[in-house]
Input
Amino acid sequence: MFRRKIFRKRRVPRDSFWEVNCKLERIGSVLRIENRKASSRNRMVQIYLDYIEFWENGIKWYGVKGVNSPHDMALMIHYWNERCMCSTKLEAEFPNLKFPVARKKIEQGEEAYLDWFWDNQCSKKDQRFAKLIDLCASHQITRRLVSFIQLRDFGFCRSIGTINGIELRDLPRIRITDNWDYEVRMPTQAYEEYAGYTPREFLGKGNAQQAFQLLIESLPPNCSPATYQQGRGCCPPAA
Output
């Protein structure tokens, strides 16, 4: 007597974002979550379970936890990426969203953001670069640029975030030394040297005031103000 074998159809496990993608399709969105991301032009959302991040121009402007509704998540993705809603409108749609001051400022335009940026940098009182930050915040050229700190370097960027995926970090940098003075270098030589490497494009050194003056003299003309890429239909600067 032969036993009858019953073959059950193997179930293919659903993607963890299957339900959200279905909601996106129902609301008419062409976007789908792939590899935990959904993007359009220069905007993107990144998702980890019930946590969603809002990105634009390579900057994470906000992240929020507790988005448990697939429908709400789909709408957030659609509104941010495709309808290019500003933070105020998103907060009106979803009261649990509270975008930070930085996002509010960039939506008012580059000038408002840069004023806030340098005031915020000064308030941090960085142990290594506090004097330089104060000098840069009070100068009409450097105050219109974005600064960053990378290892021992204090550098500048002509863009807020990326422009077409590229961050414009091609300006001179200031490096703090073991002796607590400062060296001014061109960007390609602003990283840690390997043993035996002779730095090129070394522009000079001195205290904070001297390094700052050398920096100003070394900046190319028309290097500021830093710009922010506006996507089509996305957050035009305030008039």
User: Anything to note?
Assistant: Strands lie at 37-40, 43-48, 51-56, 59-64, 146-150, 153-157, 173-176, 182-185, 202-206. The two ends are 87 Å apart (CA to CA). Residues 189-199, 235-239 have pLDDT under 50 and may be disordered. The longest strand covers residues 43-48.
